[in-house]
Amino acid sequence: MKTYKYDVVIVGGGPAGLAAAVSAKKQQAKVAILERNGELGGILEQCIHAGFGLHVFKEELTGPEYAERFIDQVEDLDIDVFLNTMVLDITKDRHVSAICGEGVLHFEAGAVVLAMGCRERTRGAIRIPGDRGAGVFTAGIAQRYINLENMKPGTKAVILGSGDIGLIMARRLTLEGIEVEGVYEIMPYPNGLYRNIINCLDDFGIPLHLSTTITRINGKDRVHSVEVAKVDEHRQPIPGTEREIACDTVLLSVGLIPENELSRKAGVALDPVTKGPVVDENLETEVPGIFACGNVLHVHDVVDYVTTEAEEAGEKAALYAKNALKKSDASVAVHAEGPVRYTVPEFVDPEDGADKKIKFRVGAPIEKGVTVIKAGEKEVYREKKAHRFLPSNMEIHTLKCSAIAGVRGDLTVSVEE
Amino acid sequence: MKKIKMSCTTCPNSCELLATVENDQVVAVEGNLCKRGVTFAESEYRCPVRVLTSTMILDTGAKAVMVPVRSAKPIPKAAMQDAMQAISKTHLHHAVKMGEALIKNVADTGVDIVASKTVLM
Amino acid sequence: MNNELKKLYDVIVIGGGITGTGVIHELAKYDIDVALLERKNDIAMMATKGNGGVVHPGYDPHPGTLKAKLNPRGARMYPQLAKDLDFHIRHTGTMVFAYSEQDLKKVDELCDNARVNGVEQVERITGDQVRNREPYVSDKVLGALLAHTTTMVDPFEVAIAFAENAKLNGTDIFLESEVQDISKDEDGNFTITTNHDTYRTRYIVDAAGIYADDVAAMAGIHEYKIQGRHGNLCVVDNHLPTPIRTVMFPCPSPDTKGIALIPMPHGNYIIGSTATMRTNKEDTSNDAEGIQDLLDGAHKLIPNFDDGSVIRTFAGQRPVALNNDNDFWICESETVPHFIHAAGIQSPGVASSPGIAEYVRDLLADAGLDLKPRPGYNKYRKAPVDFSECSDEEKDQIIAQDPRYGQIVCRCETVTEGEIVAAIHQPLGAHTVEGVKRRTRAGMGRCQSGFCQFKVMKILARELGIPEEAVKFEEDHSPVLLGHVK
After folding, report:
1. Alpha carbon A113 to chain centroid distance?
2. Nearest CA to A130 among C176, C76, C232?
3. Which of A113, A240, A312, A325 could form a disulfide with A320 if both were Cys (CB 3.0 to 4.6 A apart)?
4. Would you call C184 an interface residue with chain A, using a CB distance cutoff of 8 Å?
5. C-alpha distance from C416 to closest chain B C-alpha (Å)
6. Chain B partners within 8 Å of A62 (Cβ)
7. B34 at A interface, C-beta within 8 A
8. Does position A328 have pLDDT exceeding 80, yes or no?
């Protein structure tokens, strides 16, 4: 058993972990990244499509390119990287234990950054009935098989869910000669970015069926067909609209869930809506010295925002480890209201002089609306230009600290139509 | 007259454009936050271009690994299938650096297919 | 090969579920030649895997039935078997809830049954006592039966343990061997023809589950009929907002014990199960109505049960011997001597299995089989290492010996590459993705193999020496992957 001591231990070497590590290192902290896979980059390595980096690098990069830019920095900055190393436990006092091919490793951390990412919702979680043969994949595992393993998950696919990975995979399958019969979405609106609807479906003539879902999967050995049906406004299948579609493969892109098993072990409180840790504006969880960023905190729409969030978490973690993180006792809660499903952070400090980045998502599309933040009855922020709000898009708004200086009582974030 | 949905890729705003086409000309654009959206819509109607991404096999003898590749710049949509075939036919046998050209002037588009990852042997 | 030159077994057991494996585990104690024929590519592939895993102590069966005799007997054997055969067991106890005066009467009846059936540590408790023990239980519960001795097992783990122990003691196990014909020769021995081979035996134990009547019919026996009672089940995440530690049932109806919430040995839960008769014996598909019934059932027990915690839904069929008052059908055939029925093993089949095995042994002895102790019999079977249960020191030691134990494959259930390799090379090794899952729990957690399946595929291909596209998911024609992309 080996024991290491670091200022900042970062759990996960995907986009969040990489950016957090670089940022913490720039604060002169001694940093380690613990990564369960054999290489850095996380899920970006299998996201070979372009569309990353428009905000951070002002150019359109593929996933591996985006990752490599950060991996190069990690190497240049001499940040310690533990590959094939799986964290098994984190304690409240920031003791991290992990295993790798050499045995059990212990890390004493000044601060911990949780950057474990998220996982995909599965067939079981959405309870699609029928047979349980081979051929049902989450879009992410199909992406892994095709892009990294060179293996074909099937020859004719039906995709359930219009999340971005599902849309990206519809194009990817088509380009590699695997037929995509259609994409089915239970909601009356698509769940992925508009760009992906156009570039991944419309470009290839793949139909998107809204308010439609898979009601049954047939095939005891291997999938041979699915039954789809239209759904009513309560998302219940409408009898008589069932249709059987022959296919040997079902891809599911039905949502992502932050992976917080380790956070839970550390005693970190989780938000029931985001399924990620409850954090303050420093991205610090309710356990002092444990920070969270990226998709483990809340599922992001584009990786660029993961990066900027993680840079902040890395910096704050480094400051915490050096006892230099400014903290006042004056913290107020931030609540989601009306169409707003959640906010990150859940707490801000109105007295510390720093502007607040408030992120949120709405639960259903709003054609035209503005973001409004109130402190009690007092309006402290109102967006100037009305625009469309989509559940697939993460909203980020900057609240000037001066607007809430002296405020007592909670903040509420809402969207007015 | 027809209406065409487009997603502007000029900047991160990713405006959802609706272009009105008459007599083979874009006559109106809705949904754009700035003038560049109009320029985009016109070029998207005349000759839509996309970044093409795929993989190539790097065969080291002992084992094969996949190298992610991309068109260095967007290529015409119409050239995509030809470019895909050229990519599938190409097998690599050496280490590659990110950005290294692997197929020059793919499908006569004037654009190279480049490695989008450094893969050492 | 000439039939006469074939080995003559003393007993061939047909069917590798919890009943058949229980019987070969019991018969392995004796100096006889035994074989097991299983039509599937693994054991425990039918009712045994589609099962909640409750070792009911035996308060439920009507006194005087075979169930009443074999269930308590089997259940009492489990704790020692778990030690000898190294399978997981969890002592949970059971509560049967009463929601009405009528239910309370039923609870009293069950308490009486328990007494007559010889089941100890069964008591009637009040609603408050229920909620003291399990705070999330509905306040509509007026009282309950509490059976302290109920345990929980993973039925396929038990069946594998039974079979591996039997194999260590010389039992031949033939998988992918579907019985197609049975004939009785002039010398009184049976010849069994499968899709691959023929076998000769002096005695047959028919433990073919839902197909037991069809197998019997091959030997010209038409003494009973089997039909399936289909049941939906759900697997629930091990992190439940309303955790429980006791198996919870509503009051039973004549056909079913009702929808229960069951804490499993490894920390997750099962909701099970619905009960509808089916005529298609192969149909283990599940249905939306059944799933909804399960969720409704769970809410009746625990009003704040979180539906979002369900991670998997599935279904199975229990073999029911018709016109038999829901009892087991275990006896020697009236028409064909030396043919033993071990059929109609519906619930509580898992709990009864060791009892059934002894009962079948006695039937064989009564039918003339000479049972002398096997010289050198080994009552033990060692399970492969369960890495997640090891201390840091043990982990270090194991990894030092084999670094593959330092590579986590399944992150949800903390399963290492070393454990998967070991599961593949066990005496009855896994050779499918689902086989690996049942033995190691890789893929059983909340991501349902989303992260680890490609790793399991690679390990299976490498260890079995086959290409990845030949790796099976579960059944014979169930490739996970259909070739290379380029």
Report:
1. 15
2. C232
3. A325
4. no
5. 24
6. 53, 68, 70, 116
7. no
8. no
Say if the Cβ atoms of B54 and A197 lie within 8 Å: no
- Which distant-in-sequence residues (6+ apart) come within 8 Å of C383 by Cβ? C85, C86, C87, C161
- Residue C37 phi/psi, 5-degree rounding, is -110, 125
Q: Please, what sign has the CA dihedral across residues C84, C88, C92, C93? A: negative
Between positions 427 and 486 of C, the ones with CB within 8 A of B are 485-486
Contact A84, C407 (CB under 8 A): yes
- What pLDDT score does A351 carry? 86
Model confidence pTM above 0.90: yes
3-state class (DSSP) for residue C70: helix
B87: nearest CA in chain C? Answer: C486
Q: Please give, rounded to a whole number of angstroms, the shortest distance from the CA of C295 to a CA of chain A.
A: 11
Calculate what percentage of chain C has a pLDDT beyond 90.
94
pLDDT of residue B9: 78
> Nearest CA to CA, how far is C322 from chain A (Å)?
26
Q: Which residues of C are catalytic?
A: 56
Chain B residues with beta carbon closer than 8 angstroms to that of C454: none
Separation between Cα atoms, residue B16 and residue B3, nearest integer Å: 13
Q: Chain A to chain B, count of Cβ pairs less than 8 Å apart?
A: 66
Residue of A nearest to B80 (CA): A175
**In the sheet where A136-138 sits, what is the strand order?**
A136-138, A249-252, A156-160, A179-184, A208-209
Q: Which two tokens stand for residue C294?
A: 């399960």
Nearest chain A residue to C403 by CA distance is A101
The predicted-structure confidence for A149-193, as pLDDT tens digits, reads as follows 999 999 999 999 999 999 999 999 999 999 999 999 999 999 988
Domains of chain B from N-terminus onward: 2-46 (2.20.25), 53-115 (3.10.530.10)
Distance, in Å, from the CA atom of A83 to the CA atom of A87, rounded to the nearest integer, reads 11
Predicted confidence band of residue C1 (pLDDT cuts 50, 70, 90): very low
Chain C residues within an 8 Å CB radius of A35: none
Task: Please tell me if residue A224 touches chain C, with a CB cutoff of 8 Å.
Answer: no
pLDDT given for residue C4 in this prediction? 57
Question: What is the rounded CA–CA span in Å between residue B71 and residue A329?
Answer: 53
CB distance from B53 to chain C under 8 Å? Answer: no
Cβ of A103 within 8 Å of Cβ of C486? The answer is: no
pLDDT tens digits, A13-64: 999 999 999 999 999 999 999 999 999 999 999 999 999 999 999 999 999 9
**Average pLDDT of the segment spanning A92-109:** 97
The residue assigned the tokens 């499918």 is: C432
Measure B30 CA to nearest chain A CA, in Å: 14
What number of other Cβ atoms are within 10 A of residue C131's Cβ? 15
Chain B residues 8-47 within an 8 A CB cutoff of chain C: none
Question: What's the maximum distance between 2 C-alpha atoms anywhere in chain B?
Answer: 58
The mean of the pLDDT values for chain A is: 95
Q: Model confidence at C144, in pLDDT bands (50, 70, 90)?
A: very high
Task: Answer yes or no: is pLDDT of C327 > 70.
Answer: yes
Tokens coding A47: 């996201």
Q: Is C308 helix (H, G, I), strand (E, B) or coil?
A: helix
Partners of residue A176 in chain B, C-beta under 8 Å: 54
ipTM (interface pTM): 0.95
Among all residues of chain C, which has the CA nearest to that of B66? Answer: C486
- Taking the C-alpha atoms of residue A61 and residue A300, their distance in angstroms, rounded to an integer, is 18
Report all structural domains of chain C as residue ranges with CATH numbers, in order of start.
3-48+155-225+325-366 (3.50.50.60), 90-152+227-319 (3.30.9.10), 387-470 (1.10.10)
Partner-chain contact A104 C399, CB within 8 Å:
yes
| Mean pLDDT lowest among A219-228, C254-263, C472-481 | C254-263
User: Which residues of chain A neighbour C403 with C-beta distances below 8 Å?
Assistant: 101-102
